[in-house]
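idk why but the lab printer keeps eating my pages so im just putting this in chat instead. protein + magnesium ion:
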Amino acid sequence: MTGPVEVPVAPLLEVRNLAAGYGDIRAVWDVSLTVHPGKLTAILGRNGAGKTSTLRVIAGLTKIGGGSISFREEDISGLQTHRRVVKGMALVQDGKRVFHRLTVEENLFLGGYTLGIRRRKMPAHLTRIYDMFPALGERRRVVVGQLSGGQQQMVAIGQALMAEPSLLMLDEPSGGLAPAIVDEVMSILVNLKKAGMGVLLVEQQVEAAIEVADHVVVLEIGRVILDSPAREIVDLDVLKEAYFGKARVTNESSDNDGPR
Ligand SMILES: Nc1ncnc2c1ncn2[C@@H]1O[C@H](COP(=O)(O)OP(=O)(O)OP(=O)(O)O)[C@@H](O)[C@H]1O
Ligand SMILES: [Mg+2]
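predcted complex ->
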């Protein structure tokens, strides 16, 4: 094989054999994945595969049931969410959780406040976010409910970036957005990578995710069924087969080999 030789760098996030659930429901059985600084790992998988649960456990919002989570080579599995935030983790939850009746700036301020930023430090952080997203700077006094879906997603990402995380996790940031806007969101992620941030992206948009990903993990019923460098996924059909299931690409249903 030819190609660039990658210098080994200590992973930012290392998840090993993660398990978690809700009461008797096991949502995550065995998930292992790694995110390196300046790289993007994409988690793909069908509805209910355990993608959101995996992010929630990493962020400390859902209790870990087994396995380990290392962040900057430190086991953080027992830490509360806000301690993980202080260490540099951020999560943009699904569904653009922004305050529609508040302005862009109020949303960013509240995001920063929730993440523990002191009032006097707020202006510097706001300036940093506006430098990154000039569209938000221009609309700082606009009520978020009046913004486009893409701009609202930018606000949600901006909120998470207020605390200058080294790992940004996003749960379907392209959800409900038009294709051109999805590209815009993805290019934001590419810029964050270039700035050295590690990104863990959950997506339903397979093509868009693969384009920006360095590594791809596909989940099925709480387990990893594909784990591959993005550049080695040359045949998207193979991935889609894993992603959508065999029934979707063949007419023969007899060779389905797992529970649906
Ligand atoms: N709060 C909850 N209480 C009980 N069961 C839950 C809860 N959240 C998720 N589950 C279950 O856990 C499993 C994994 O769900 P999860 O939301 O992690 O999947 P997902 O891959 O994010 O799905 P989607 O693509 O629909 O967002 C599913 O069977 C789901 O029904
Ligand atoms: Mg989900």
